[in-house]
Design brief:
Elements: H1 3-7, H2 11-23, H3 33-77, H4 93-103, H5 112-131, E1 146-148, H6 159-162, E2 169-170, E3 178-181, E4 192-193, H7 199-206, H8 210-223, H9 231-234, H10 242-260
Parallel strand pairs: 1-3
Antiparallel strand pairs: 2-3, 2-4
Helix pairs in contact: 2-3, 3-5, 4-5, 5-8, 8-10
C-alpha cells in the first residue's frame, strides 16, 4: 500500500479492519456473518479496482519509456564516436552519470572515453528496453502484407514456399505491401521486426536460461547499434546472411559493456529528442 493510500483509505478498508477485529471477539454472532462476507467482498473489490487503475498507468509509462529509449538509441546509432564532436551535448542524467563514473569527474568534451561511453550507453538504454519486451510475431509479418524481398539486396523468402510468414524483417510499406529481408531497406525506419515469428530462433533461446537469453538478445541489438556503420547499413546490399555474420563478428566488441553498464540507470525521462 502506498503512502497516499495509507492517508486516504476508503470506507470499505475501515469496514474491513473493524470487521476483522469483531471476528476475533467471542461476541461475534452468527447473524453478522452475512455482513462480514459483504465487507470482505467490498475490500477485495476496492483492492481489485485499485490494481486495475494502476495497470493502465504503468502500461502507459512503460510505453513512453520504451519510445524515449528507442529515440535516444536511434539518435546516436549513426554517429561515429571517433568523429562526433561535443559528445556531452543533450545527454540524459543516466548517461552523464555513467560518464562521470567511468571517465572521471571532469573529462574533456571530446575525450575518447566520454564519446565511447556516451554512444555505448545510448545503445544499452535502447537495447535493454528492447530485450525486456517479449518477442512478438506481428500480423504484418504474414504473406498477406509482407512479400519475398529481392535476394540481391538482402531479401529473404517467407516460410511455406513464400506463402507463410517472414522470419526476419518486413520493410516499411512500399506501394501496397512490405518486403521480407535483412539489413538495408528491410530494417530502415518503419520496418517490422519479425524475428519473434521464427520457431527455430525461439527454440534456440528456450534452450538458454532466462538470463542467458536476455544477454544473447542484448548483444545482438548492441552489435547492430554500437559499430559505425551499423550492421544494417553495411549489409544494405549484401547477401541474406550478411547481417547475422556481421552481428556475430561484433559481439565480442560489445560484450564488455554488459558488465560496465550492468547496474546503470536505463530510464531517460529527461532526454529531449532533437
Amino acid at each position: 500500500m502506498t503512502m497516499l493510500a495509507a492517508r486516504v483509505r476508503p470506507a470499505s478498508f475501515r469496514h474491513c479492519e473493524c470487521t476483522h477485529q469483531r471476528l476475533g471477539s467471542l461476541a461475534f454472532h452468527k447473524r453478522r456473518l452475512s455482513s462480514f462476507v459483504v465487507a470482505i467482498f467490498a475490500c477485495c473489490a476496492t483492492l481489485g479496482n485499485s490494481h486495475l487503475r494502476a495497470e493502465p498507468r504503468k502500461a502507459l509509462q512503460d510505453f513512453v519509456d520504451e519510445k524515449l529509449a528507442k529515440s535516444y538509441m536511434d539518435s546516436w546509432k549513426k554517429k561515429d564516436w571517433q568523429t562526433t564532436s561535443k559528445c556531452t551535448n543533450n545527454l540524459p542524467a543516466a548517461t552523464a552519470s555513467m560518464i562521470h563514473t567511468t571517465c572521471g569527474a571532469r573529462p574533456e568534451p571530446m575525450d575518447r572515453c566520454v564519446c565511447i561511453v556516451a554512444k555505448a550507453h545510448s545503445c544499452h538504454v535502447g537495447c535493454t528496453k528492447k530485450v525486456n519486451v517479449k518477442p512478438a510475431c506481428p500480423a504484418a509479418c504474414s504473406s498477406k502484407t509482407c512479400k519475398w524481398g529481392a535476394a540481391s539486396n538482402g531479401g529473404v523468402a517467407l516460410s511455406d514456399g513464400g506463402e507463410g510468414t517472414c522470419y526476419k524483417y518486413c520493410s516499411k510499406v512500399i506501394g501496397p505491401v512490405r518486403y521480407c529481408g535483412v539489413g538495408g531497406v528491410y530494417q530502415a525506419g518503419g520496418h517490422v521486426d519479425c524475428t519473434g515469428c521464427d520457431p527455430s530462433r525461439q527454440s534456440r533461446l528456450s534452450s538458454l536460461s532466462p538470463a542467458q537469453a536476455k544477454k544473447h538478445r542484448w548483444m545482438e541489438c548492441m552489435a547492430d547499434c554500437y559499430p559505425t556503420p551499423s550492421c544494417t547499413d553495411m549489409c544494405a546490399e549484401g547477401s541474406s546472411d550478411c547481417f547475422e555474420q556481421c552481428v556475430e563478428r561484433y559481439k565480442s566488441s560489445v560484450e564488455p559493456f554488459w558488465h560496465v553498464f550492468k547496474r546503470s540507470d536505463t530510464t531517460v525521462p529527461d532526454y529531449k529528442p532533437a
